[in-house]
Amino acid sequence: MAKYRPLLTALILLWLVGNALRMPLLAVPPVIPILRDEFKLSGTEIGILTGLPIILFAAAALVGSRLVALLGVTRAVIAALALTAVGSGLRAVTPDAISLLATTAVMGAGIAVTQPALAALVGRWIPDRIVLGTGIYTNGLIVGETLPVALFPFLFPLLGESWRAIFAFWAVPIVAIAALVLMLAPREEAAAVGTRLRWWPQWPAREIFRLGSVFSGASAIYFGSNAFLPGYLSETGRADLISPALTALNTGQLPASLLLIFFARYLERRAWPFVFAGLLCLACIGAIVTTAGAVTVVSAGVLGFAAGSAFALGLTLPPLLSAPDEVARVSAAMFTFSYASALVVSVLSGAAWDLTGDARFAFLPVALSGLPAILLVPTMRFERAAYRTDKERSA
What we know:
The protein has a single domain, classed as Growth Hormone, Chain: A. Helix 1 packs antiparallel against helix 9 (172-184), helix 3 (43-71) runs antiparallel to helix 15 (327-356) and helix 13 packs antiparallel against helix 14. The chain is mainly α. Mean pLDDT is 80; it is low at 189-196 and 384-395. The chain contains 18 helices and no strands. The radius of gyration is 20 Å and the shape is globular. Helices cover 75% and strands 0% of the residues.
């Protein structure tokens, strides 16, 4: 049993860090109706609030790649988790919409730096268990997305029905997780620290574009649905369905991450799972905007599964297709492109709602985000040779 202890410790820490990257983000959707009333937010402003962390994911991902090179993966993750906790906690004391956006930006920057480092952590901590490690931290991401929504109906009354207390509450576990990583993380090889590494990977630009487009589709569908589902249900007079629908949307991702853990060998490097997930997303969004009842809740759950499947499969590609020293840069490039695109979708969705006065139109840009998985993945080459570095090509 002792020989498996380092592996078990690494997997637990990966899972916990995954949780920390999503808990503060998904504390927002359940309180969006309250924030909208208190700060008089428009649909576009809601899109900016929910999309701001996404653009930080894009802008700071390359900084995260460089920070990994300078500090080492583990220390970079600890520093970024601390920044995430500070930003998340400060949201609880914001007096207006501008300061709420500013503290959200701080939180988003911390998450953005951590995210590309996660893939590198897998390669450094458990290089012979890459798919398992990716599946574990993906499950952590999804559980972290589910907990704030699923526990909201219970926490909100206990915390005095205060959105500020909700934000403060979800900052506490991040501090604890950072402390655990500091104390228990596997030792990092000295060669990985302080090396002069480039920010951008030696991948062809067209491959970054295709990979980023596919990944951005899954992100835009997930974040966009969380952002605009509460407004749509409120507008249709079914505010009572907001909590069940959001819970279904986020809980639906859990089976997706388990599929990756147990059936990775049958799913990885294949196009059909992406195509199937994209088609399923389109069908579910269509069902959501044409119903306002039990079908909406079920469709939200299936949508969570489909978007979560595409997201989890996309996360396996950088560590599978890259050399260990390239993983952080490939992940950063993918996140930079994909999350920038996802922000555009979020803002366009909010603008569509404002222009039409109908929350259903907010889902139009979200639905279009499913097309890259259907159209682009079949054109991709999944063999590692497709992404060889210049040095490897000249050898």
